[in-house]
Design goal:
490 residues, mainly beta, Leucine-rich repeat, LRR (right-handed beta-alpha superhelix), 18-stranded parallel beta sheet, four-stranded parallel beta sheet, 32 strands, Leu-rich_rpt_typical-subtyp
Length: 490
């Protein structure tokens, strides 16, 4: 019953649904639940009444959840309006929730100065706590002290109205934590990393501290522009973490022995550093990076997109085959790496360094859209299946394909890349290397004609997008593509 206009739930409204196990009432206009509104739902396991206007202080009583003590999931997020008063403690109605001893998932709003009383400690089976409509201004050592130690996943996202002051032992009540997601909560990266000290030498699946620093909380003591030091990383480096997100935090540089120095590199699987402003590859940190990538034997994805170091465009990302690491600076990526995103990255102030994709690699996805860097991508063996190079030069793609004519590419996205100019000057030169392609997007390229035989090598082509070009009619050269399932020529 989500996405309707319900405003009230009266007594025994669901009395005839005694076998009901899941009830969804989200995205309504509910502001009132009677004490007996859930009567008869003894088998109910999931209750979602998120995104309504149910006031935590006024709606819930001790009687509300008596009929549904078997609930395992309760979602009441996005109900509380933005408060006027940010300086008064807010006491949560623990007397309404303490009967829910089978609960494993709780979604609830976070007020500016929350006070969770002893009733929350009765939910001893709870595994996930997710806060939304977050108005938090202070995360103290006492904030979560009433919660049970069973919590494994804690989400506290998008607390952006005020700077969130933190105390270092705020997460101490959660010794079994596996997922920490504070993305978009403005507490500053330095303070967020301080919260990790209870987890030194433990295993954590996910730490998401993306965009916890912001210009809106810039100050002399906590500047948005951040140099990563070994001291800032002292707790994080000891943790065996699988998924790490430090994106959009104003990072402009890192000292040797800091950002890429971990005690358990073998744990890391996904790393996001997008939206910062630092040069990944530098001569002073070359040893750090080689040690990092040598040790990250299970790393699957690396996101270094949207990093802008300067705006001087002299050279662009380049594919290269002839090299010798005895004469050039090289960083060898792990063979386990499957996905690299360096899109929208401008970094031309550093030295020319080879980023080596080794033999027997697992790299199947590369996004180098709108990228201008002095780094040379060196493929010892080419196994890409998806290549996105929107805004890239024709010559870059041609040189890459030329070195690996018998490639395994299945999807190519190459919008706004002057393909039209390349066709006028070189005809089918590039397309003869795309024999394995199944999906091709060459929109926005000023293409006004196709030369004969351009699609002949692409026998498996099923998806073609030619949007926003200069074609006067559907090219006859496409008529032999018998496997085509989708053609977009708008």
């Amino acid at each position: 019953m989500s996405l309707n206009r319900l405003k009230k739930i009266g007594n025994n409204s669901f009395g005839n649904y005694r076998d009901l196990q899941e009830l969804y009432l989200s995205h309504n206009q509910l502001y009132y639940l009677s004490d007996q509104s859930l009567q008869g739902l003894q088998k109910l396991a999931v209750l979602d009444i998120s995104e309504n206007i149910l006031n935590l202080s006024k709606v819930y009583s001790a009687e509300h959840f008596h009929p549904v003590t078997n609930l395992t999931k309760l979602d009441i997020r996005k109900n509380m309006p933005q408060p006027i008063d940010f300086v008064t403690d807010y006491s949560y109605p623990d007397h309404a929730f303490d009967i829910l001893t089978e609960l494993s998932f709780l979604g609830i709003d976070m007020m500016p100065l929350p006070h969770f009383r002893s009733g929350f400690g009765q939910m001893t089976t709870i595994k996930e706590v997710h806060f939304d409509s977050c108005y938090l201004v202070r995360l103290s050592n006492e904030t979560f002290q009433r919660f049970p130690s069973s919590v494994e996943q804690l989400t506290l996202r998008n607390c952006r109205l005020h700077f969130v002051a933190t105390e270092d032992n705020a997460l101490l009540p959660f010794p079994n934590i596996r997922v920490i997601d504070f993305s978009g909560t403005f507490m500053h990266l330095k303070h967020a990393l301080q919260l990790l000290h209870p987890y030194c030498y433990t295993n954590i699946s996910t730490i998401n501290f993306g965009h916890v620093s912001d210009l809106s909380i810039n100050s002399k003591d906590l500047p948005y522009v951040l140099l990563i030091t070994a001291d800032i990383m002292k707790y994080l480096r000891t943790i065996c973490v699988e998924n790490l997100d430090l994106s959009e935090n104003g990072i402009i540089d890192y000292e040797p022995g800091s950002l890429f120095s971990f005690d358990h590199l073998e744990c890391l699987r996904h790393l996001s550093l997008k939206g910062n402003r630092f040069l990944l590859l530098t001569e002073k940190n070359l040893n750090d990076l080689n040690l990092f990538f040598h040790g990250t034997i299970r790393l699957k994805s690396l996101d270094y997109s949207y990093n802008t170091v300067n705006y001087v465009i002299k050279n662009s990302v380049t594919a290269y085959s002839g090299f010798n690491c005895s004469f050039h600076s090289c960083v060898v990526l792990p063979k386990s790496l499957e996905k690299i995103d360096i899109s929208y990255t401008i970094a031309n102030s550093g030295p020319k360094i080879f980023l080596v994709i080794p033999k027997n690699n697992s790299l199947t996805y590369l996004d180098a859209s709108y990228t201008k860097v002095t780094t040379f991508l060196l493929f010892i063996e080419f196994r890409l299946e998806t290549f996105t190079c929107t805004g890239g030069s024709y010559e870059y793609s041609y040189n890459l394909m030329k070195y690996f004519p018998h490639n395994t590419l299945k999807t190519i996205v190459w919008k706004n890349g002057n393909v039209g100019g390349g066709i006028r000057l070189h005809g089918n030169r590039l397309f003869i290397y795309l024999s394995s392609i199944e999906s091709m997007n060459i929109s926005e390229n000023n293409i006004w004609y196709f030369p004969d035989g351009i699609c002949k090598p692409m026998l498996n082509l099923t998806y073609i997008s030619l949007r926003l070009n200069l074609l006067q009619s559907i090219p006859v050269q496409l008529s032999d593509q018998t496997k085509t399932k989708m053609l977009d020529c708008l």
